[in-house]
TrEMBL record:
Protein name according to UniProt: 60S ribosomal L30
Record has GTP-binding as a keyword: no
Residue stretches spanning the membrane: none
Entry keywords, A to Z: Ribonucleoprotein, Ribosomal protein
GO annotation, cellular component aspect: ribonucleoprotein complex; ribosome
Pfam families (UniProt xref): Ribosomal_L7Ae
Matches recorded under InterPro entries: Ribosomal_eL30-like, Ribosomal_eL30-like_sf, Ribosomal_eL30_CS, Ribosomal_eL8/eL30/eS12/Gad45
Family affiliation: Belongs to the eukaryotic ribosomal protein eL30 family.
Domain of life: Eukaryota
Species whose genome carries this gene: Olea europaea subsp. europaea
Length: 79
């Protein structure tokens, strides 16, 4: 149940548009239980990895500490 435990401490979950449907539904379910926001990234997993500055694919991403960034404030419906 590591997925559920990580969602408990996250502030926001980003999911790429080509994330497998089963994984996407699991993430959305656990996010709903732990009251964490979910944002569907408008790009594939390669684009999300590049946006993070990584050289590998990222299909889902949990933001634990946003730091000085405005990523959570910039999304509609997020506080």
């Amino acid at each position: 149940m590591i997925l559920g435990e990580l969602m408990m401490i996250g502030k926001l979950i980003l999911i790429s548009n080509n994330c497998p449907p089963l994984r996407k539904s699991e993430i959305e379910y656990y996010a709903m239980l732990s009251k964490v926001g979910v944002h569907h990234y408008n790009g594939n997993n390669v684009d999300l990895g590049t946006a993070c500055g990584k050289y590998f694919r990222v299909s889902c991403l949990s933001i634990i500490d946003p730091g000085d960034s405005d990523i959570i404030k910039s999304l509609p419906g997020e506080h």
